[in-house]
Structure formats: C-alpha cells, structure tokens
Amino acid sequence: MSEVEALPPGLPRMINDRYEIESLIGRGGMADVYLALDHVLSRKVAVKVLRPDTATNPMVVNRFRREAKAVAALSHPNIVAVYDTGELPTTEQQHERLPFMVMEYVTGKTLKQVISQDTIDAEFAVRVARGVCDALDHSHANNVVHRDVKPANVMVTDAGHVKLMDFGIARALDNSATMTQTAAVVGTAQYFSPEQARGEQVDFRSDIYSAGCLFYELITGKPPFTGDSPVSVAYQHVGEIPPAPSEIAQNVDPIFDPVLAKVLSKERDDRFQSAGAFAAALEDALNGVEFHEDPAAPSTYTLPIYGNHDSTETGFAAQSAPLTSEHPVFAANDAPVETTRHRSNRGLIVLLSLIAVVAVALASFLVIRSIQADAEKRAPVAVPDVKNLSEDDASSLLRDATFNVRVEREFSEDVDENKASRTDPSSGTQVAKDSTVTLYISEGSEQRVIPEDLANQSEAAARDALRQAGLEVGNVTREDSATIPTDWVIGTSPELGSKVKAGSEVDLILSTGKVKVPDLTGMTLDEAEQVLKDQGLEKLSLSDSNNTEVTSNFAPGTIARQTPSASETMEQGGTITYDLAEAPPEPTPSDTPSESPSESESSGDSNSESPSETTSPSPTQSQSGKLPPPANPGEGN
C-alpha cells in the first residue's frame, strides 16, 4: 500500500496527533503492522493495530491490552521494544475501539525466512540461540513468559542482531497451528512444551523447551516433531522422544545431542533451569566441550533406624548400651536386645502412621481447597450498575467485574447523551465470569423540539437550526406578511415549539415580502391610519394624490378612491395613494322679474290678478330642480 492509497475504513492517517501512517508492512492472524513516522522523536516506528474482524472478540482484545502493557516494561537489546500503546476511537465505519501498539521498527528477516532460504551452520545457530536465550532471561526476570517462541517470532536484522518479538500476542488466532484450552491459545504446536500440550500451567521452563525446539530446527532444518495436525504433534511432544539431531542431519556434530536431549526433557525439572544455562551449554559444545549431566548429590545426613544418636547432634544425653563380653550377634536372643528392637519398631510404626495421617489430611485439604477455588472461579458475578456513567467509566467498571463489553447505542428519554443508559443483562443480574455484557449508550431523547426562535430568521439559518436539532427540512411554502422580510420564516408545520420524532421533516413557511391591501374607502384619514396599525401594516403609508372626487357616495373629507385598490397585493413599505370625497356644488337660483308701474297701480286698485301674469319660482322649487324651461327665441312672455 502506498502513501496515496486510502487506508482501511476506520484507520486514521494520524494516530494520537503523533504517529503518521505511511504504509502496510505486515499482516498477521489478528493484527496488521504499519510503518509510521513518529513526529515527536522524528523516527520510524512500527504500529501494530488489531484488525476489525478480531476486535469483536473480547478475549483477544483483553489479551492484546494486557500483554502489550507487560512487554512495554521490558527493555533489552534482544527484544523488540514497545514504545506506546492505546486505542483508536470509534468511527462511523468502525464501531469497535481498536487497540494498537507502537513498536521499534526493525529491518531484516524472520528466522523462519532465514531457515527456508539458507543453510545454517552451527556457529550461526548458537549465536541466534544465545540472543533468544538472553531475551528470555530478561523477560523471565520480569515475570513475563513468552509462551510462543518460534522462528516466525525471531527477527535477524540486516546488521545480524537477534530480536525476539510478539510476546504471546500474534499467537492468539493462528488456529491452523495452535492448540487451545478453554478458548485460550497456549502456543504453536511444533514448538510448545509437553505441559502446554496437556493444558497445564506454563512457566519459564516452557519457553526454554520451545527455545530447544527452535535450535533443533536451526541445525537440522526441521522441528523435532511434525504431523498432519496440531493434535498429532501435541501427542508426540507428550509421549515420544525426538531423534538425535546428528541422526537427522549428517553435518550436525553429535556433541550437541546430549544438550538437546536435556532441554527437550518431558519433565520441567529435568531441563535446564534457565535459558542462560542452555545457551552456555551450546557454546561449550561449539567449542568442543562435551555436556555431562551432573550426578545427584549424595545425602549429607541419613537418620538411622536403629541405634542411638550422638549426644552432640541431638542435644540430649544418650543412654549408653550395657557392656558385654559377647558379640552383639550372638547376644541377639537376650531379652534386653529384643525389648529394644520391639520398642524401635513400635516407634517407627507410630511415626509412619502419624506421617500417613498428616499426608491424608494435607491431601484432603488441598483437594477441598482446589474444589472451593474452582467453585469460586465459576461463581457468578452481579452486573454492576453503570447508569449515567460515561462510556469509558462504564466499560472499565464492567471489565473490572471480569466481564467482556460490547457497546451499542440507543435513544433514551431519561439519560443524557453519551451516558450509559442500561446493560444487558440488567444491573444486579448474576452472570458467569468472562461473559459478554452489552453496554447501551444514550443518544439522547428521540423526541425533538422544533426551535421557537425560527420565526423571523432567514431560510439558511432555519435549515441549520433544524439540522442541529436532529430534524430535516421538508416542503417550503410562501405566504404574504406585512412584517417578515422576503424569504424569512413566518412559521413551520408542525408549529413552532411542538415535539416531533428525531429525523422528522419540518415544513417551512416563508414570507413573500408582499402585503394584501385593505379597503380604506369611506374612512377618514385618522380611521385609515388606525386600520393600518390594527392590521400590522404600519409600514404602508398614505399619500394624497392632490385630487378630489365629487361624489355623493361618501361623506366629504373621507377616502373616495385608493390606489392600489382593496384585495390587491403590494410590496412591504409601499404607499397607498388616495382621493378625498367632495360634495357636489349647490345649484344657483333664478332672479325674480320686476313689476311695471301700471301693474302696480292695477294691483293696487284691484285684488284680482291678470290671467297672463305668472309667478316667479320659489327657492324650494329651484333646489328641487323643477324650473320652467327656458323660452325659445322669438316667443313672447
């Protein structure tokens, strides 16, 4: 994988703001190894990240964490150093936290590659064994047992240095070449010890046995036992003696045979008791010094069954035997001698009986204690209450209670977001140790409140506010508004402040920026202003067109005509032009005709009127419009 290629989903390019991933350099059964640059110390490092398909196995994850921390405490030139450990955060693509280790970057070949490519001489094999044994001595001194010493876990650098790596980590999922017990990997079949094959507890001498298998393969080209399956190889480790290396390869000096016979002993006590002692024996054999088993040291003191003890040893005054002139053999029938022998026999019987009773009592105690310990180990444990704790605190509490943790997320009405809402099984339930408990983390309430402050906001601001509230924008409609600017929010559907389900769609109602014009005709200016105020149309203004309209339909001084007319729409802040009503002018009355003197005299002399006289119209008649028609030209009165 090159720098330009995309990393696997969930793996960031920069880890802890320090380690920049550059390329993939190795892939194992449970983890991938990447070459990275440490920006703090400006050096190349190897970052081992647990693969996502194995991160769901709690046993693998816990073993990775535990042993990574244990190996990080080791510091030896023959051990690949571990600089840092941690966990990658969860992502949308990866829901499990992936543990990782930052290790020393070593260039070279594994010992497995060296064996398959080259013929190895005895000097190189002893040098490699010395490096491996020095690394094991250091780890054993720090109470760390490797349990998977094999050629694939030994690096030979380009400079020829030997580096031991993968302290019990890479072995966890190599199912094709490992034996397991109660789902725990105990080693690689071709290199593990008889006690590992029997499923017993291992110790540092198991690593020494594996180192012997490794050296056996170095000088012969193949491991001491091979078979069709790991099980068949395991049976050979338990019950068969491997052939001598000199019988397998003719170029192997027989001087190495007794050294390997001892290191590959079935019983731990018969092997070398330290890796350094094994390496020293190999170096002696390389230099021509044969290995001989040390004879068992004789006992320095044996308690005699018969006779008396020296008073200087017992601290008590020993009673002297009576003097006699006869040889003790011939005096065997004497009563005193027989009495002493009978007393000694009775004392021996009593002593043996007491020893037998104590042995039976001790064995019974050990059996009962073993049964109790096994019962305690299988005893169920109550699931702790983790509600309202953070994810890290809740996970740590569950792991401390010996449980494996799987994290799920759900909505909760009574628990804050990113807090533990519940567990499955529920808290207080008695569950077997090492069981998997599902931890549920709250994503907050599923009900979302439509923000009430969306009104009088821009469309973009309203969309952002809804998205932050966990809601989606639905349809967008528009309505006239006298106060809300164009394309700003008037309201929503459902209404502002109402509760809806998370992820629901909310329709937006936006302003068109226009106003429906009210009908102001027949109103005075003060009344029209009040109507505009009551309807929230203060932004509309009235403007006199300087025109009047003569009409009898409206009272003088009221609005007789407006532009725009009622029910039309206009932009906010527009102007309504009006014409005021004016009363029609009153008609002018006709003049009264003058009287002639003769007529006056006649009228004075007589009370009768001339039939030809006509009376002038009264003002009432003039106002009602009933006036005489005008005279035609040429006609007389």
Shape: elongated
Instruction: Tell me what portion of residues adopts beta-strand conformation.
Output: 15-25%
Largest sheet: 6 strands, antiparallel
Beta-strand segment tally: 26
Please state the structural category: alpha+beta
CATH superfamily of the largest domain: Transferase(Phosphotransferase) domain 1
The CATH class of the largest domain, by name, is Mainly Alpha
Q: Reading side by side through the largest sheet, how are the strands ordered?
A: 1-2-3-4-6-5
Catalytic activity: L-threonyl-[protein] + ATP = O-phospho-L-threonyl-[protein] + ADP + H(+); L-seryl-[protein] + ATP = O-phospho-L-seryl-[protein] + ADP + H(+)
Binding site for ATP: 48
Keywords: ATP-binding, Kinase, Membrane, Nucleotide-binding, Serine/threonine-protein kinase, Transferase, Transmembrane, Transmembrane helix
Biased composition (Basic and acidic residues): 410-422
Characterization of the model:
The protein folds into 5 domains: 14-104, Phosphorylase Kinase, domain 1 (2-Layer Sandwich), CATH 3.30.200; 108-286, Transferase(Phosphotransferase) domain 1 (Transferase(Phosphotransferase), domain 1, Orthogonal Bundle); 382-442, Trypsin Inhibitor V, Chain A (2-Layer Sandwich), CATH 3.30.10; 447-512, Trypsin Inhibitor V, Chain A (2-Layer Sandwich), CATH 3.30.10.20; 517-582, 2-Layer Sandwich (Trypsin Inhibitor V, Chain A), CATH 3.30.10. The radius of gyration is 56 Å and the shape is elongated. By secondary structure, the chain is of the alpha+beta class. It is 30% helix and 22% strand. The strands form 9 sheets. It has a 6-stranded antiparallel sheet with strand order 1-2-3-4-6-5, covered by helices on one side. A 3-stranded antiparallel sheet has the order 7-8-9. The chain crosses the membrane at residues 348-368. One of its GO terms (biological process) is negative regulation of fatty acid biosynthetic process. ATP binds at residue 48.
